[in-house]
Write a structure and sequence with these properties.
Helix 24 packs across helix 28. Strand 8 and strand 9 form a beta hairpin. Helices cover 44% and strands 13% of the residues. Among the domains are: 186 residues, no CATH class; 159 residues, no CATH class; 173 residues, no CATH class; 152 residues, no CATH class.
Length: 965
């Protein structure tokens, strides 16, 4: 019997719930534990597991209703999750005229309505429910908690759920147990062999499954263990963690206060230190402090000013606050680093044209032909003859005082360091040097060397750093090392792990890679991993212990789990876990370099981790990491999924979460799954990625869920049989998606249909044991050359997308006319369709062009900027691309030019005359032209730039309808 997810899935609602969860930031359940890249939303994991366990009946509509009830995503479930009141004026706006008269005073206005005297609390709840039920799903979510925040469906909902499924459950764990026993004979087990941040094992355990997690990377394994045991430990563990954090923090605070390294002569305490590199200008010989800007705080209007010191041939840096707007602008422009070049602030000789331009020297030349000196283990600061030096140039102090009302207040101010501050810096270095060898041996501070890699090599190239502790200055190492030392005072493993995670977060926010953010809402040191890279900065911020409290004291978003599950670091090619359901989010062909980035954290707790988990290894296992896009990547992935398929029972399944829009990568995935002995049964696309400035470009916003079963067929097919079957499967897939569409609450976006075509092709390809024309082993091992010949599988997938593009006629457009248009015309009209739905990613248009077989689609674009891509309007085309062949001679292009002429002359006569003269067989093509013009006239309701052209298209269509010989 097929499962619910193999017949239908509420894609739109799940996308909205996933988006809400991702937008929750640090209030997401697991993010407080520490940084990991690409955690999947918990609601998506929950829905996937329930969707696999719930059988599909003959009543698809009822199945859908019950599934939504289980997830509290039905109307009653949403109201159960409602946690915020709807404002009275918004309630008023959602009521009918009669309802307003019934509930509100007649003098009440829409902006300040007043309820009638005598309205009870119960009456208010009735009003809230009436208004809530009239909101769209999106609007309802703004007033709701997430599904994870409540225990599950209501008692009334359980009655309906049990009646439909034949169960007797009163909670999600009970339901999961009963459904699992029906399907597998026992409580279902769920495993994730790429567990990463722990979303899958955590959510599986929370809803009652036996949960298993493994990951090659021990950092990921620790996060998953923490998710299950710390977050899943409930209130008791959360309180235990809080007390342990306080104990360590207070001990370190006392030590730092005793050392006197963060307090000044006035008793103020520093919470931020700003450092910059400096180097000697090769032209003038002066030492130049390096920073792209000298703006320190936009809200406080604080800047640094360079003051020449001719005697020492260097610059003092003056710190001034509350400066004027012109001084702020000057400080921003006065940066000494621009476009990876040193910009010397000293005046230089006139050039040949009599202009005085600043002397610019590329930083690559500053570093020298042979590169920078490589730091040795005991280097804690630059040596005197190093090319790049470091200096402290600003400190932010916190002044505590009692106001006139006897209330304690704090005030922050910036100041340039004085001699006492430099003396404290020297003391910090001395304290660290006294402890350095001992702390490295005990693992309180890192001792690991940095291995070369895609991300790590730049640390050596750009700074000369060779060990992980070189990424931290002495003050940072002393504070973090003192925290690590005090963690060893704790006896309970769960307390030690929680404080190690706190240390990890402090290291993220207190390294030389932690940038100072001067923006008004910040003025703070931000974390190292603002993106998925090691970014070296020529100026950076360092936090005092006072400012590390927000990193150290992470809030445990506790959710009690009765079955904590099992976690171990393990290679997915050999992992011993044998779950009924495998749910994985594997590394992709353009994967994040997890193995390198995670070593930043692993360096801080490798030795403590070995003591806490003696059966774990503490190596990032770089050599075994699956990465790249070559034949070794494909072979490694095939080995992983072959092992997972072997461990899976015959009636078990795998779900692969996959995010990519490249046909070549999908072809590789088909080979990988095929070689693993798995077949695709269905696929769905969920929007899981939030908009982000870090993702500007043509990124994919959806995650495709591929549901896989064991390959049991011995059938062999030929390629000439495959193509017609792919066409039928693509159309069947699209028809099923279109049948599920909801006019008011669409389930799918335009790119979902293109992704569905990929999945449909995979479903056909993987149902056969062999395809006579394809040698799987050879294809897996064959090197891919950029721009080289496409594999046979890639050709099949390209054909699937082409079928989808041809099949998906824009809404409201005549199907017969569509079939007679050229690929260029279809691309333009379908492009307008997806643009009208708010799609501005270049990748969507690239995919559309690929589907229609267009090699160059840029002439159609008005803007090709990332996430701002759109097509030209009729007027914007002007006379471009007009001609006697191709798109220039097509009906669509002539219709566009006729619209332009209508707009220009404010009359349909010129447009009609153009069409009569230029369109071959005008009288037989007139109806087709009218259809095109009618379609273009609808664009004005959807896109502002089409307002004038759309009106002209409407008038022109009318003129053609009335045209006669």
């Amino acid at each position: 019997m097929a499962s619910f997810i193999e017949t239908q899935f509420p894609v739109s609602k799940l996308s909205k719930e996933s988006y809400k969860e991702r937008k929750a930031g640090n209030t997401q359940t697991l993010t407080s534990l520490g940084k990991w890249w690409g955690r999947k939303p918990l609601i998506l994991v929950r829905a996937t597991i329930i969707g696999l366990l719930m059988p599909a009946s003959n009543d698809a509509k009822k199945d859908r209703e019950i599934f939504l009830k289980i997830l509290t995503m039905d109307e009653d479930g949403l109201y159960q999750r409602k946690s915020k009141p709807i404002a009275l004026k918004d309630v008023y706006g959602l009521l009918s005229t009669l309802e307003r008269k019934e509930w509100f005073e007649p003098t009440g206005s829409e902006t300040t309505p007043k309820l009638k005297v005598g309205t009870t609390a119960e009456d208010r709840q009735i009003l809230q429910k009436i208004a809530f039920n009239r909101l769209s799903y999106d609007d309802k979510l703004t007033y709701c908690d997430r599904p994870e925040h409540i225990e599950g469906p209501s008692e009334e909902a359980w009655v309906e759920i049990n009646a439909h499924l034949g169960t007797t459950a009163n909670s999600l764990p009970e339901l999961v147990k009963q459904l699992g026993e029906t399907q597998f004979g026992h409580t279902p087990s769920v495993g994730d062999a790429f567990c990463g941040g722990g979303s899958v094992p955590f959510e599986a355990a929370r809803i009652g499954c036996e949960a298993y997690g493994s990951d090659l990377n021990p950092v990921a394994s620790l996060l998953t263990w923490a998710a299950l045991n710390i977050v899943g430990g409930g209130e008791e563990v959360a309180e235990q963690v809080r007390q342990a954090q306080e104990k360590v923090y207070e001990a370190v605070d006392r030590q730092i206060t005793e050392w006197g390294i963060e307090h000044n002569e006035k008793g103020c305490r520093a919470d931020a230190y700003l450092y910059c590199n400096e180097t000697r200008c090769p032209e003038c010989g002066w030492m130049i402090p390096l920073a792209p800007s000298w703006v320190i705080g936009q809200r406080t209007r604080c800047i640094g000013k360079l003051k020449p010191d001719p005697i020492n041939q260097r610059f003092d840096i003056l710190i001034e606050s509350d400066v004027s707007a012109s001084e702020m602008a000057a400080a921003k422009a006065a940066g000494t680093v621009r476009d990876s070049k040193l910009v010397c602030p000293n005046p230089h000789p006139m050039d040949n044209e009599g202009n005085q331009r600043p002397q610019e020297t590329p930083m690559v030349l500053i570093r020298g032909r042979e590169g920078l000196r490589l730091w040795e283990n005991d280097d804690l600061i630059p040596r005197k003859d190093d090319v790049l030096q470091e200096r402290l140039y600003c400190i932010r102090w916190v002044k505590t005082y009692v106001d006139a009302k006897g209330k304690e207040r704090t005030e922050r101010y910036y100041r340039a360091p004085n001699q006492q501050d430099f003396d404290r810096e020297a003391k910090v270095l001395g304290l660290l040097q006294e402890r350095f060898d001992d702390w490295q041996e005990k693992g309180y501070i890192p001792s690991r060397q940095i291995e070369p890699g895609d991300e790590t090599t730049r640390l050596q190239r750009e700074r000369g750093w060779t060990h992980w502790h070189h990424l931290f200055n002495p003050r940072q190492l002393l504070i973090l090392g003192t925290l690590a030392e005090r963690i060893t005072d704790l006896d309970v493993p769960i307390e030690q792990v929680s404080c190690l995670l706190s240390l990890w977060k402090c290291a993220d926010y207190n390294a030389k890679l932690s940038q100072w953010d001067p923006t008004p809402s910040k003025e703070m040191v931000v974390h190292t991993f603002a993106n998925q890279a090691f970014n070296t900065f020529l100026n950076y911020g360092s936090r005092g212990l006072l400012a590390l409290d927000t990193s150290w004291f992470f809030k445990v978003n506790q959710r009690l789990i009765h079955n904590q599950g099992k976690v171990l670091p393990s290679d997915s090619r050999t992992t011993p876990i044998k779950p009924d359901i495998g749910l994985t989010d594997p590394p992709y062909a353009d994967a994040i370099n997890y193995h390198e980035l995670s070593e930043f954290f692993l360096a801080w707790y490798d030795k403590p981790l070995q003591k806490l988990f003696p059966h774990w290894y503490i190596d990032s296992k770089r050599a075994l990491a699956i990465r790249g896009r070559d034949e070794s990547f494909r072979k490694s992935m095939a080995d992983c999924y072959h092992n997972l398929a072997n461990q899976m029972p015959t009636n078990g399944c795998q779900v692969v979460m996959f995010t990519h829009q490249d046909a070549g990568v999908w072809a590789d995935l088909a080979l990988i799954l095929w070689a693993s002995g798995l077949r695709v049964t269905t696929a769905w696309c969920i929007a899981t990625e939030t908009d982000s400035a870090l993702k500007e470009g043509n990124y994919v916003q959806g995650t495709v869920l591929l549901v896989l079963r064991k390959q049991t067929s011995d059938n062999t097919a030929f390629l000439d049989e495959i193509y017609p079957k792919v066409e039928l499967e693509v159309k069947r897939q699209l028809d099923s998606m279109l049948a599920l569409e909801d006019e008011e609450d669409p389930n799918f976006g335009d790119t979902d249909y293109q992704l569905a075509a990929y999945a449909a092709a995979l479903r056909v390809l993987t149902q056969y044991k062999n395809i006579e024309d394809i040698d799987v082993a050879y294809e897996l091992s064959k090197p891919r050359k950029k721009g080289g010949d496409k594999s046979e599988i890639e050709k099949v997938i390209d054909e699937a997308v082409k079928i989808a593009c041809d099949y998906l006629v824009p809404k409201g457009f005549d199907t017969f006319v569509w079939k007679n248009l050229t690929p260029e015309e279809r691309f333009y009209l379908k492009g307008l369709d997806i643009e009208s739905h708010g799609e501005y990613r270049t990748g969507a248009y690239q995919e559309l062009a690929r589907g229609f077989g267009l090699k160059d689609y840029k002439p159609f674009l008005e803007s090709g900027k990332a996430n701002q891509t759109r097509l030209k309007t009729a007027t914007e085309f002007g006379t471009k691309t007009l001609g006697d062949i191709g798109f220039g001679a097509s009906l669509v292009r002539n219709a566009l030019f006729a619209i332009r002429e209508t707009v220009r002359h404010e009359s349909t006569q010129q447009g009609k005359s153009w069409l009569r003269a230029e369109v071959r067989d005008y009288w037989n093509q007139r109806k087709n032209l009218i259809e095109i013009l009618r379609y273009l006239s609808t664009m004005g309701f959807k896109m502002g730039q089409w307002a004038i052209d759309a009106k002209a298209a409407e008038l022109l269509a009318g003129a053609l309808e009335n045209d006669n010989v």
